[in-house]
Amino acid sequence: RLPGMRTPTAMIVGLVLCPCGLLLTLTGTLAPNWRQVSLIPNQPIDLVLEQGIWNICSERQSTHDRFCGQPDEMGYFEQVAVRVARGLMPTSLVVTLLGLVVAALGVRCWRKEPRHLVAGVSGLMLLLSGLLSLVPASWYTHDLWALPAAADSTLVVGYSLVLSYLGSCMEILGGLALTFSFHHYCKEH
Hints:
- This is CLD23 protein.
- One of its GO terms (molecular function) is structural molecule activity.
- By secondary structure, the chain is α+β, with helices and mostly antiparallel strands.
- 57% of the residues lie in helices and 11% in strands.
- The protein has a 5-stranded antiparallel sheet with strand order 4-3-2-1-5.
């Protein structure tokens, strides 16, 4: 450690990665673009459906007219992967917020020494939150081409799913970095 530096590098890494992960996961959860459906038979050639876990939007690429709240005529929202994502993504966000509060109490840059045990516990919470969002993102990706869509339409991964993955990975890495605090705690006791 550098002289005068109170906060270990691993804690700083955790405190940088986890809030970034939270923002990405929040965007991934709320934005309606886990999957894009295009080239739908009997529809305008430039129509794209964007399906999220809460909403379906349609957009005409030529005019950029966008309409959300589209009816779910194929039972998309009834699919297990979508229902799991609806449950686990918000749960992950809540656990991330709680983990960040605990991390702030453990790291406490304004104290003479950080509370290593508290920081380590926050790392476990943030690691769990990352796994809670990684599971639905992975499940949805696995089922992406099996989820209901018009026959012969083109399916691609949407940006919300990518952001959910990135956010999950950042939370997992940040959580792991904070769990290194247990090492300091064990050395002290």
